[in-house]
Specification:
Elements (H helix, E strand, L loop, with lengths): L3 H8 L4 H4 L6 H18 L2 H15 L3 H10 L11 H4 L5 H14 L2 H11 L5 H5 L1
Helix pairs in contact: 1-4, 3-4, 3-5, 4-5
InterPro entries: DUF7674
Pfam families: DUF7674
Protein name: DUF7674 domain-containing protein
Length: about 130
């Protein structure tokens, strides 16, 4: 199993205090990670966003527990700050969207889901969307 704490500590020093709390799970960390992403979007900090979304996607590609944690504690909430939707959409890999979309369907009205689908349609590969 990959050591998410070691990777997080080296990639995201902004969240060192959260990483060092051994009693806190990766779910807590991923929730804090999303808060850091919000700051990055509001400040248009591409370096921070690259590290945040890179770490979330790395988690998504790991063993089942960590991948599921990334989906429910990070990706499920990426459009919760609705006013940032245009900024968030380009950072979402297609493979992640495919996995998290059923959760969005469950949480949102059809109008919001249609808007997200519009934002994500024809967006290219994750690398193209994020740069």
């Amino acid at each position: 199993m990959a050591d998410w704490r070691t990777r997080a500590a080296s990639l995201l020093p902004e969240l060192t205090a959260v990483v060092e709390r051994e009693s806190w799970s990766c779910h807590v960390f991923l929730t804090e990670l999303w808060q850091l992403a919000l700051d990055g979007h509001r400040e248009d900090d591409r370096d921070l966003l690259t590290r945040v979304y890179g770490f979330a996607h790395w988690c998504f590609r790991q063993e089942q527990f960590l991948a599921n944690a990334a989906v429910v504690s990070f990706y499920e909430h990426v459009f919760d700050e609705w006013e940032l939707r245009d900024a968030v959409a380009p950072w979402l890999p297609t493979e992640v969207v495919d996995k998290v979309r059923p959760l969005w369907e469950w949480r949102w009205p059809q109008e919001r889901l249609s808007e997200v689908d519009r934002l994500l349609s024809g967006s290219g590969t994750p690398g193209e969307r994020a740069v």
